[in-house]
Amino acid sequence: MAPRKFILTDTQRTELRLAYEQCRDGPTRTRFQAVRLYGSAYSVAQIQEITGCSRTSLMDWCRRYRSTGLAGLRDGRQGGNRAKLSRAQRQTVRSMLQQYTPRQLFGPQAATADGQFWTVSDLKCLVETSFGITWDSLTSYTTLLKEGDLSFQRPQKVYKSRRESEAMAFDELLEKNSSILPRMPRRR
Q1: Burial class, 16, CB count within 10 angstroms (exposed 0-12 / middle 13-18 / buried 19+)
Q2: Global pTM?
Q3: What does the domain layout of the chain look like in residue ranges?
Q4: How far is 136 from 86, CA to CA, in rounded Å?
């Protein structure tokens, strides 16, 4: 077996240990620890036992540490759905959410009866028709609503086929009947 070429100096070991202790991100801490152990002559089997990483990941982390230092071991991901809309497209969506109601953009096809407030299904329709993009997760749409300074609220359940005159007549009937019912004395 060839001698290991990757050996850390005392300064590098201390740097990795301090970074490990100060870091709050679990996967990044694992990378710091694995590289420090490998550079301190621990066997790959021992490092896999301690950190749970694969050999290929360990070698990749060591290469990245050698080329870019601690920055190469930090997690640089921003999330999967972030890349679907560009910054300019997100800004366009934000301004549309502020300027228009769903009724103004979609007419009677808006998700709520009055079409005054944005819902996830309205936003989904807006993003799909404007940019041809859909997300599998509804969380992506609620995040986009938050970016537009709107809060997520469940819409009222109102039937679109409801006749307002019949609803008013029913409400009047309930009001009349509630005054006719005998009142029960309160218990003390």
Answers
A1: buried
A2: 0.46
A3: 10-73, 81-147
A4: 18
